[in-house]
Amino acid sequence: MTVRILAAGDHFVRTGLLADALRAEHGGAPETLEIGELHLPWPVEPFGDVAEVHEASGTEEQLIEALQGVRICVTQMAPLTRRMLEACPELELFAVGRGGPVNANLEAATEHGVAVTFAPGRNATATAEHTVALLLSALRRIPHTHGELARGVWRGDYYRYEEVGMELAGTTVGLVGYGAIGHRVARILGGFGAEVLVHDPYLAPDTAPGVANVSLDELLARSRVLSLHARLTAENHGMIGAEEIAAMPPGSVIVNCARGGLLDYDAVCDALDRGHLFAAAFDVFPEEPVPAGARLLRTPGVVMTPHLAGASKQTAHQAARICAEETARHLRGEPLAHCANPAVLGRGGGR
Question: What is the pTM (predicted TM-score) of this model?
Answer without folding.
Answer: 0.91
